[in-house]
Amino acid sequence: MVTMRDVAERANVSIATVSFVLNGTKRVAPETRARIEAAIEELDYKRNVVARALASSHTRILALLHPCREAWPNATGNRFVMSAANGARERGYDFVLWPLNDDEQMSHLLAGGLVDGVLLMEVQLRDPRVDRLIASGLPFALIGRTEDEELPYVDMDFATTIDQAVEHLRSFGHRRMALVTLRMKDPAGNEPGWITRVKSAYLDAMAALGEPATVITVEGSSAGGREAARLLSEDFPEATAVILVNERASAGLIKGSRALGRTVPDDLSVISAATSAELGEMIEPSLTVMAAPAGQLGRLGVNALIDQLEGAQDAPPHVLIPCTLVPGQSVGPAPIRQ
Amino acid sequence: MVTMRDVAERANVSIATVSFVLNGTKRVAPETRARIEAAIEELDYKRNVVARALASSHTRILALLHPCREAWPNATGNRFVMSAANGARERGYDFVLWPLNDDEQMSHLLAGGLVDGVLLMEVQLRDPRVDRLIASGLPFALIGRTEDEELPYVDMDFATTIDQAVEHLRSFGHRRMALVTLRMKDPAGNEPGWITRVKSAYLDAMAALGEPATVITVEGSSAGGREAARLLSEDFPEATAVILVNERASAGLIKGSRALGRTVPDDLSVISAATSAELGEMIEPSLTVMAAPAGQLGRLGVNALIDQLEGAQDAPPHVLIPCTLVPGQSVGPAPIRQ
To answer: For this UniProt entry, which residues form the secretion signal (chains A, B) (predicted)?
Structure first.
């Protein structure tokens, strides 16, 4: 087997210099680098990640932890993942998705010595995974926030997003607006932080408007969307608009409203937040969406992690990016209600 | 650091027996296993995957290779992935998704010694990745087929699926049926095998019916679906039904047809194959779908790989499973055309 020593001899450099080039750990003069790369090519030298990991205690592999549900990721979640993967690749890291169901699998990952760092999504307010990561000493970055906002994060700016959605609906004359979001099976406090933050931004906005607030939570599915339409007509029939933060329920909400005799947008305006224009286009009528900054956040998250690994971080990031309004055909003038 | 030897001494067994329990490589009496697990607990022994890999030359990690596109996976592809991940976990393997863009990344994976085996999806008829895997000697399994059907595979039974779709449409009186499928940027021959197999099953079915055939290929998006509606009305206006095998174009096809004055199913029946009932429900009207056996195939694929790794394989699998018809509201009686 060709070794790093063979490469060093052929290129007439030290083994350390070969290692600098292979692991990107130190700058090497372009001409020297070219000579080493030529030697690697000529000798058909293959790096063995396992051997290298033992030698350097680095694998240059990053893992994105995600729950192993058949329904994950949705279209928007997937955009986070792929932009993070591409960002890692550009900086010379391998990037794997690590489906994670339970605590045992987490132990396995942390004890494994396999990855240099971890990216966490769908962060809960009180997230036991974050506690485990802190205790383990393995570098990590969050896309999302816990209650403890001292920890570095990149996240959607839910407060600004909800404010802009409310503002858009107000510009069409709406005042009575309901929020439809995701119902979690987890006990309260263990829900993803975004659910809590969306709800409180909505409640604040309604309070500022002096209007009553109604929060409806349903499962993320067509059936959930139809349930939301029913609950809406029973509990808050005077609402003329809905802010929806539950991507998978969007089609069901429109269809369910229609089945109850309320067409969108004539009788009910709908704005779907934290989703994608692509999904909005699939629905009839095309949804007005607040498109998630998924590509930006995926990249920022992975860059924060790599900066931390490479000691290149000036200060840990605390970055919030709002969604972007993409008008469709699901928002219209508020109807006059008697 | 606590070693495997420490665990063996505390449990009063051989190192080999500890290894059998840790790696699941051999049955160990329950009482002995319990003693070893207690020792692991007491000593807080952590397995190090990298060290273990060097000792055993096995990592018990499997990788699913997939193209690193922002649009991947779709809902159906995701179901494949998650069922494979769950299947791997049940047999004691870690399972990672390895986004793969180019040949260099493939080299890195193959040279790395990091994974015990690889699962490949979106297999092309002539797939350079399969050639690389064969040359590398790394065990792999295919979900999909190359031209060379001698290689083990599990795959959708496209011929039976298309025949059943045609049969369903015929039972509603349709005879003129178009096929709408996916346009690939890859040069011909390098396209995913399913595209070729779907097309040839459709052409055979139309020949058997003595009816003309029209194949329309568009990109997988709402815009692609609208383009299909336009091409259909221009090139094959006498068609009363469409067999669609392009999940992401489904909403655009329905909306585009409506914009051209053809409502589904009154003027045009649509059956969407190799997708999910969940996606069908999102569309208005709800699509009649042939639901992909994604969960079954994901599990069969990962089991075939693990059987191969463990020498438990009687014969390499050649398994085909057709889609299942889930009636919606997008298929109706054939209109009488003048």
So the answer is: none
* Phi-psi domain of A189 (left: phi exceeds 0; alpha: psi -120 through 50; beta: other): left
pLDDT under 70 in chain B at which residues? 1-2, 23-26, 46-57, 68-75, 101-104, 112, 186-189, 337-338
In angstroms, the CA B229 to CA B268 distance is 10
| CA-based nearest residue to B161, from B123, B218, B205 | B205
Which residue shows structure tokens 């007005």?
A: A288
- Cβ contact, residue pair B278, A222, below 8 Å: yes
User: Which amino acid is located at A258 in the chain?
Assistant: R
> Which candidate, B64, B70, B71, B69, places its Cα nearest to that of B246?
B71
Asked if B231 and B249 count as a contact pair (C-beta separation under 8 A), the reply is no
Per the CB < 8 A criterion, the answer to whether A67 and A106 are in contact is no
Closest partner residue to A68 among B70, B71, B82, by Cβ? B82
**Do B252 and A70 make contact, defined as CB atoms within 8 angstroms?**
no
Query: How many CB atoms within 10 Å of residue B204?
Result: 15
Interchain pair A46, B79: CB under 8 A:
no
A73 touches chain B (CB under 8 A): yes
Query: Measured between alpha carbons, how far is B288 from A102 in angstroms, rounded to an integer?
Result: 37
Distance CA A252, CA A225 (A): 4
Contact A254 B72 (CB under 8 A): no
CB contact under 8 A, B70 and A63: no
Residue A211 to residue A203: CA distance in whole angstroms: 10
Q: Given an 8 Å threshold on Cβ–Cβ distance, is A284 in contact with B254?
A: yes
pLDDT in tens, A239-295: 999 999 998 899 999 999 999 999 999 999 999 999 988 888 888 899 999 999 988
By the CB < 8 Å criterion, does A61 face chain B?
yes
Could you tell me if B141 lies within 8 Å of chain A, comparing CB atoms? no
Which domains are present in chain A?
4-48 (1.10.260.40), 61-156+294-321 (3.40.50.2300), 158-292 (3.40.50.2300)
**Cα dihedral angle (B299, B300, B301, B303), rounded to 10 degrees?**
80
DSSP string over B23-80? HT-S---HHHHHHHHHHHHHHT----HHHHHHHHS---EEEEEEE--TT-S-HHHHHH
Strands B324-326 and B288-291: antiparallel
User: CA B36, B53, B106: angle at the middle one, nearest 5?
Assistant: 145
